[in-house]
Amino acid sequence: MLLDGKEFSVPMATTEGCLVASTNQGCMAIYVSGGATSVLLKDGMTRAPIVRFGTAKRAVELKLFLEEPLNFDTLASVFNKSSRFGRLQRIQSAIARKNLYIMFTCSTGDAMGINMVSKGVQNVLDYLQLDFPDMDVLGISGNYRSDKKPTDVNWIEGRAQHLILLTDFYSF
Question: Is residue 124 within 8 Å of residue 116, measured between CB atoms?
Answer without folding.
Answer: no
